[in-house]
Write a structure and sequence with these properties.
about 50% helix; about 450 residues; 12 strands; about 15% strand; alpha/beta; binds zinc ion
Length: about 450
């Protein structure tokens, strides 16, 4: 760390021209889990994530819909925050918009031109990748192959096919800002360099994003910082892709390629759990089955929380206070060991589910105290991963929770008439009721 106790982290944010899909949600969750774990461990996290509110795709959408660029970008920025809020992702400490940083981008591009690392041609200003000695390092790119691959490119004024645009000169009808090279707008790769260095400073700790951003986006960000002679990110973290099995989806759960679609059909915590079941670098597959499996696992956690009437505030307990809150020290240490190993969330989760089994077994065997300590540990560790137990935070109110417990007791006592009556009561109140091996589970009926 550059500064003891403080982690500075920059994560590439959305280009706001459409609704977020499952991949965006996965990336937001991956960095939320990293941030939460660092905070759980007692570190302060300065988390910057940008909003790209000027881009070809936004302009295209605005033109085709006869709306202004600001209307399109503000609509989809709002959609973005609603989706990540629904996932329980903590908002970044700063979320700068590209359009707020144009003057600083112009200044940085001018500095690159002055250093001889960028040059102007008829349609814009380009970075001279030849001026960056280790260009291609981050993405482990075979530059010769890239050059050959791009040799058919129309723009013959560029010094190298690898050179990329920093400033796009305005075409008629496009949004534009003033610059020494005439009216235009910045290229995408410039905003993150300017914002990260401005808000986090030189040599910040960590830069992240989806693995599709390694090349060219992150390589090109880094190249600009190198060409400026400034220390850029010390570490890079990239999360894996999301595969969606459309065929199976459409049969059972409908198409949920957008986050909103998924969240209408499943508990948001189930998607977090599904994401946590894979290492952040691996690909994940979202299918009807993998979502249902995650819902079932979540139901086991919620049932434990109900059984021991766990305080939801346990989700906010940090590592240093966990033992005082009644958590099991050996289990805490085992969790930290897994998470410190490049965020081994699959290992950490299987440890948590082992604790669930042990807590239930202890209580079944009459040792309520031992069961409770293990259950408290589960709540604390799940909280460190951003999973709140016992139903989504504000979703299941106390009266409903009491009905759930009463219904579980009725079923256990084979009083099916009472269990059915409670089911009717819950359904009348707008809940979808499910019977699982671990007890009654409810979620809100969509829409
Ligand atoms: Zn970026």
């Amino acid at each position: 760390m550059r500064e003891p106790g403080v982690v500075s982290m920059y994560v590439c944010g959305p280009t706001v021209y459409d609704v977020p899909h499952l991949g965006h949600g996965r990336s937001a969750l991956a960095f939320d889990v990293l941030r939460r774990y660092l905070e759980f461990s007692g570190l302060e996290v300065r988390h910057v994530s940008n909003v790209t509110d000027i881009d070809d795709k936004i302009i295209d959408r605005a033109n085709s819909e006869g709306r202004t660029i600001a209307e399109v970008s503000s609509q989809y920025e709002q959609t973005w925050w609603e989706a990540v809020d629904a996932l329980g992702v903590r908002r970044p400490t700063h979320a700068p918009r590209a359009t707020e940083y144009v003057a600083q981008m112009v200044a940085m591009i001018a500095a690159l031109v002055e250093r001889g690392a960028a040059y102007e041609i008829s349609d814009g200003v380009y970075l001279a990748t030849g001026a960056v000695p280790d260009y291609g390092l981050l993405g482990h790119q075979d530059l010769e192959a890239l050059r050959v691959g791009e040799r058919v490119e129309a723009n013959t004024e560029k010094r190298s096919p690898l050179d990329f645009v920093l400033w796009k000169k305005a075409k008629p009808g496009e949004p534009q800002w003033e610059s020494p090279w005439g009216p235009g707008r910045p290229g995408w790769h410039t905003e993150c360099v300017v914002m990260s260095l401005d808000l986090l400073g030189d040599g910040f700790d960590l830069h992240g994003g989806g693995s599709d951003l390694v090349f060219p986006h992150h390589e090109n960000e880094r190249a600009q910082a190198v060409a400026l002679g400034r220390a850029f990110a010390r570490h890079w973290t990239h999360n894996g892709f999301v595969m969606v099995d459309d065929q199976k989806m459409s049969k059972s759960l409908g198409n949920f390629t957008t986050l909103a679609d998924l969240l209408e059909r499943a508990d948001a915590r189930a998607y977090r759990l599904l994401v946590l079941r894979a290492h952040y670098r691996s690909q994940i597959e979202v299918t009807a089955t993998s979502v249902a499996d995650a819902q079932e696992a979540l139901a086991r956690l919620d049932a434990l929380a109900r059984r021991f009437a766990l305080d939801p505030a346990l989700a906010e307990v940090r590592a240093a206070q966990a033992a005082d809150a009644g958590a099991d020290p050996a289990a805490l240490a085992a969790f930290a060991e897994r998470m410190d190993d490049d965020l081994d969330t699959p290992g950490a989760l299987s440890g948590i589910f082992e604790l669930v089994r042990r807590a239930n077994a202890a209580a079944d065997g009459g040792d309520e105290g031992a069961g409770r300590a293990l259950a408290v540990t589960v709540a604390v560790l799940a909280g460190a991963l951003g999973l709140r137990l016992g139903g989504a935070a504000s979703e299941v109110d106390d009266a409903t929770a009491a009905l759930l417990s009463e219904r579980d007791a009725a079923r256990a006592g084979r009083d099916f008439a009472r269990a059915d009556a409670i089911r009717g009561e819950l359904e009348a109140a707008g809940w979808v009721v499910e019977d699982t091996a671990e007890g009654t589970r409810v979620h809100r009926r969509p829409g």
